[in-house]
Amino acid sequence: MDELYASVIVDISAEKLDRPFTYRVGEALREELKEGMEVLIPFGKGNTLRKGYVVELKDECAIEKDKLKEIADINRKAVGLEARTMALAAWMKKTCGGTLINAMRTVLPVKKKIQAKSYKTIILKADRNELAVMAEKLSPLRFAARLRLYRALAEADELPEEMVRDKLKISASVLKTAEKDGIIEVRSSEQYRTPSIGRGNLKAVAALSPAQEAVAKEIMAGAAAGDRRPSLIYGITGSGKTEVYMEIIAEAVSRGKQCIVLIPEIALSFQTLMRFYARFGDRVSVMHSRLSEGERYDQFQRAAKGKLDIMIGPRSALFTPFPDPGVIIIDEEHEGSYKSERAPKYHAREAAEYLASVTGATLVLGSATPSMESWYRAQQGEYRLFKLGERYGGARLPRVSIADMREELKAGNRSFFSDKLKSLITDRLFKGEQSMLFINRRGVAGFVSCRSCGYVVRCPHCDVSLTQHRDGRLYCHYCGHSEDTPKLCPECGSKYIAGFKAGTERIEDELKKLYPQARVSRMDADTTKNRDDYERILQAFADGDADILVGTQMIVKGHDFPNVTLVGAIAADISLYAGDYHASERTYQLLAQAAGRAGRAGKPGEVVIQTYQPEHYSIVCAASQDYESFYERELSYRRLAAYPPFSHMLSLQFFSRDPDAGMERARLIKEKLKGVAGDLVILGPSEALIGKLKDVYRCGMYLRHGSLDVLIAAKDAAEAAQAEICADPRSREVALQFDMDPVTSF
Ligand code: ADP
Ligand code: ZN
Ligand code: ZN
Questions:
Q1: 493: phi > 0 → left, psi -120 to 50 → alpha, else beta; which?
Q2: Counting ligands in written order, which one lies closest to the CA of residue 275?
Q3: Is-above-0.70 flag for pTM?
Q4: How does pLDDT run across 121-164, given as a tens digit for each residue?
Q5: Which atom of ligand 1 is nearest the CA belonging to 244?
Q6: Which of 124, 370, 430, 522 makes the best surface tag, with the fewest CB within 10 Å?
Q7: Tens digits of per-residue pLDDT, 472-502?
Q8: pLDDT one-digit tens code per residue, 57-94
Q9: Tens-digit pLDDT profile for residues 212-240
C-alpha cells in the first residue's frame, strides 16, 4: 500500500495554517482518517501527546519518511469550539470546493493587534426635557441633522461618536455646535464604549402583539420540544419581525446561551441597533465593514471569553466563536449578499443550517419576500412556517397601480413617465412630500448599438458593453477603459449607431426638464464610488435635501423614509431579461420591497409600476401584494424547467490568460464527469457572461441534478481531474472555481 501523510496543525488559528507539521499515517488509521479530524500527535523533544487537527492528507512528502513521526490516534469524541470550527470548515470544503485550508481561512478570524486608538463618546449634558423643548423649535428641514442628534440623545445618554457619524450621518461641525451650546460633551477613552441608554430611560420591553407573541411562543416551544427544524417567518414589511427575534433571543440568553443575528449591512439602521442596545445593553456587539481586522478579532475574542451574548452583523458574523450558541437569526433571508462572492462561495443560510445542526441552536429565518428555496422547504415541511400578515399597529400598505407603457406610447406619450406617474409626482411636489424613482439596470447598462446591424460597442479588456456618459464618451464599468462614441458603425459603416435610452442620468435629465423647480438627487454606481456615498445620499434625501431621488435598484433596499409617499418603478420589466433563472424572483422581490418603502409613517403611500409586460405574473403579483400566488406560479415554472429548488446547480468557472485554454480544460473535465451519474445534466462549456475581465478569459459550465450529493461527487471528480491535469508540467495554466447553487450569473 502507498504511504499516507497528514498535515497537522496543533492549534486552531489562521496563523498556524501556514505552518502545519507533517506526520506519517500508520496502517491502522489509514482507512478511517479524514481531513478535519482531531488527532493525538507526539510533539516536541519529549514527544508529549498533544491535540492536533488534520488539515490535509497527501500521498507524497518531500521529507524523508524516517524523519517523520506517526499520528498516535484519532480523537473520536472531539467536542468543543475547535472541533466545531473544524467541522464547519470541512463542511464548507465539501459543499463549496477548494481546499480545507482555504475554508479554514474563511471561518477563522486573522489575529491582529488593535492599533492603539482613542474612541470618542458623545455624552448628553443638557436636561432631557430641555432637549425636547429645543427640538420642538427646530425647523425639520433646515436643521435636520441637529434634530436627528437631539432625537438620538433623547433615547440614549451616551453614544459612540463612530455610530453618530456612520449611522446618523452627523458632521463634526454639528457636534461642535452642540458641544459649544452645552448640550453634549465629547469624551475620549482607550476603550470602545457601546451606547448607554441611561438612567430612567430604559423603556419597558415592548409588549408583543398577539400575532407576534404566538409566533415567538410557538418557535420556542417547538425548539424546547426537540423540533430541530429551522423556522421561516414570512412577515410583511413592518409586521414586527425584529420584536419576535428579540423575544426569542431574550429567552435563550436567560438560559445562558448566545445568539447570532445576521442582517444585510445596508439594512442595519440606527433604530434597529438602538432597539437591541436598549434591550440587551453592552452584551451586544455589532460587526460592520468599518471595523479593522484587529477590532474584529477583538470582538471574536470577547465572544469566545463569554463577554458577549449577541453578535449582530453581516454574513461573517456567523463565525463568531460563541461557546454555546442557542439562536441564529437571519433577517431578510432572501438577500443575495448572504452568498459569498469569493471562494469558497458558501451561502450563509446553508452554513447556518449546518452550524445549527451541530450546536443544537435554533435557526430562525425572516423575510417579507422569502427566497424560493426557503419557501419550498417550508412547503415540504423541512422548515416550520410562520406568518405575520399585518403591519404592527395597523399601518396600511400602499396602493399599487400598473402603468402599461405600450398604451402610453400608442397614445403619443414618448417620455419615460406615464401620465399617471407624472400627475402623482406633481401632486407630491405640491404637497411637499417626496418621491423615489428607480430603474433596475442590473446587467442592462446604457449600451450603444447599431440599429442597422446590431453591433454593440464593448470593452476590449472586459468584454462587457460600454456605457455612454453625459460627456458623450463610452466607459467600462469594470476596468474604467474609455473611448469616443463612434460616429459610424465600425462593423457596417451605418450612421444609425446610438445609445440605448434608459438610464438614471437620462431619467434625471428628463425630470429636470419636466419639473425645473424640483430638487432631484441621483444614486447609481457613478454617484456612489466611495464607501460612504451610499448612506450619505440616502441620509441627505431623508433630511429633505431633495424632492425626488432617482436611482438604480439600490435605493429600494432597507431604509425608512417617512416623507416618501410615492415610489415609481420606471421600467419594471427590464430585470426580467437578466438571462438567468432568478430573473422573475428578483423582479418580484424588488417590486414588493419597493412597495414596502412607500408611506410607512401614517401617510398613505402610492406605488406606480411602469412596464411593457403588464401581464407578467411577477409584476401582477407584486402589484396586488399577492405573495403566495407568485410563489405558486414561480414554483410551477421551476418544476417544469427542473431549476432549483427542484434541482441543484453547480457552476464550474474556468479562468485563463490564454484565450482558449479555459475552454479546452472545460471540455477535458466534461469528459471525466460523464461517468459520475447517468442523469447528470451538463450545460456548456460556454464563454461566461463576462468573457474577459482584466485580461483574464472566463468560461463556465453548469451541472444540474436533483441530488446535492451527486453534484458534490461531480465536484470532487472535477477537482481530481483538474489536479491530475495540473500535475503535468506541460499543461496550460487554468484556474477552476466552483459555485454551488449560484445566485448570480457568471
Ligand atoms: P419588520 O422587521 O417586520 O419590518 P419591525 O420589527 O421593524 O418590522 O417593526 C416595525 C415597527 O413597528 C417598528 O417601528 C417597531 O418598533 C414597531 N413595533 C413592532 N412590534 C411592536 C410592539 N410589539 N410594540 C411596539 N412597537 C412595535
Ligand atoms: Zn452596424
Ligand atoms: Zn474593461
A1: left
A2: 1
A3: yes
A4: 888 888 877 887 888 787 766 777 888 888 888 878 888 888 88
A5: 6
A6: 430
A7: 888 776 676 889 999 999 988 988 787 655 6
A8: 888 877 787 888 999 999 887 777 888 888 899 999 99
A9: 999 999 999 999 999 999 999 999 888 89
DSSP state of 381: T
Q: Is the CB of 392 under 6 A from ligand 1?
A: yes
Q: How confident is the model at residue 172 (pLDDT cuts 50, 70, 90)?
A: confident
Q: Is ligand 1 within 6 A of the CB of residue 558? A: no
Identify the structural domains of the chain with CATH numbers, from first to last: 5-107 (3.40.1440.60), 118-190 (no CATH), 210-394 (3.40.50.300), 399-444+501-638 (3.40.50.300), 648-740 (3.30.70.1710)
pLDDT at 350: 96
Burial class (CB in 10 A: 0-12, 13-18, 19+), 119: middle
Is 689:675 a contact under the CB 8 Å cutoff?
no
Q: Measured in angstroms, how far is the CA atom of residue 243 from the centroid of ligand 1?
A: 6
Q: Is 239 in the pocket of ligand 1 (CB under 6 A)?
A: yes
Cα separation of 194 and 284, whole Å? 8
CA of 481 to the centre of ligand 2 (A): 22
Name the closest ligand to CA 213. Answer: 1
- Distance between CA atoms of residues 40 and 655, nearest Å: 40
Other C-beta atoms lying within 10 Å of the C-beta of residue 177? 15
To test ligand 1's pocket by mutation, which of 237, 242, 268 has the most ligand atoms within 8 angstroms of CB?
Answer: 242
The ligand minimizing its distance to the Cα of 466 is 3
Quick one: DSSP state of residue 261? E
**Amino acid 598: pLDDT:** 67
Please tell me the distance from the alpha carbon of residue 330 to that of residue 581, in angstroms, as a whole number: 24
Considering only CA atoms, which of 167, 143, 138 is closest in space to residue 155? Answer: 167
Tell me the CA–centroid distance for residue 237 and ligand 1, in Å: 9
pLDDT exceeds cutoff 90 at 630: yes
- Nearest CA, atom 18, ligand 1: 240
**% of residues, the chain, pLDDT over 70:** 92
Atom of ligand 1 nearest to the CA of 212: 23
State the Cα–Cα distance between residues 145 and 124, nearest whole angstrom: 16
Q: How does the average pLDDT of the chain come out, rounded?
A: 86
Query: E strand or H helix at 58, and its extent?
Result: strand 48-58
Closest-lying ligand 1 atom to the alpha carbon of residue 388: 3
Report the nearest atom of ligand 1 relative to the CA of 235.
3
